[in-house]
Amino acid sequence: MQQARQLVAGAESDRIGVAITLALAYGLRCGEVLGLHWSAVDWQARTVAVTHGVKRIKNRDGSSDRKTQLVVSELKTQKSRRMLARTPEIMGKLRDQQARQAHLKCVAGALWQDHGLVFTSTVGTPIDPDNFSHVFSRLCESSGLGHWHPHELRHSGASLMAAQRTPLHVVSEVLGHASIAITKDVYGHLVEGDRRAAAESMSGLLFGTRSRERGSQRGSQSHKNRRSQAGEGLVTWRARRDSNPQPSDP
């Protein structure tokens, strides 16, 4: 947890700082956070719809010398297109981003290209995921966290949610996984203690106080272990990979 806060604090003043915060808080893929639209933000309901992603694809236009092109496209699956609830703190971050973008628009003047995106370049165009990756790595280094890849924000956010006892089906919905089976496969080990504690509690209920007390102690220890894991920050989960990558992934 400390490293997560350290990263958020270190990136706060950067142009992509809010994007990093959102990616970490909700386990968003790099392309998804860069594809957020202002029209998808409901300020009254405090929700944001994740509907699009930014990605670089092979350029099939024979008249262009460029081998690839940057596109903003709708996410392909129904589960990946999802609605996320926002806290007042997150909505405040989005307000800050709105003000920052208004300043960029004034500075750019006639050069500004309005695509309706929450996170843009200095002239309003989509941010290249590769550029985001380079800036993110630099921010991690300057924050004393070493070298990190943006996709690890997704794994870390998901793992922190699970470690804070968020129900696994909710974690799955927030991540936009195709099924909860994928979420269980990647993050199920973080809730193993809950299942064991539940079994011990039922055993105590049916067979006596001593078993119940033992179950309570184990459940408490399991929760402490998970909280300890969360306290270790991003490093705990950096080696785990998502088994449900989307085209918007870096």
Produce a short descriptive summary.
The protein has 250 residues and is mainly alpha-helical. Helix content is 51%, strand content 10%.
Helix/strand layout:
Elements lengths: L1 H10 L5 H10 L3 H5 L6 E2 L4 E4 L1 E7 L9 E7 L7 E4 L2 H21 L20 H14 L8 H13 L4 H8 L4 H8 L4 H16 L1 H23 L19
Antiparallel strand pairs: 1-2, 2-5, 3-4
Description:
The protein has 250 residues and is mainly α. It has a single domain, classed as Intergrase catalytic core (hpI Integrase, Chain A, Orthogonal Bundle), CATH 1.10.443.10. It is built from 10 helices and 5 strands; from the N terminus they run αααβββββααααααα. Strand 1 (41-42) and strand 2 (47-50) form a beta hairpin. The longest helix has 23 residues, at 209-231.
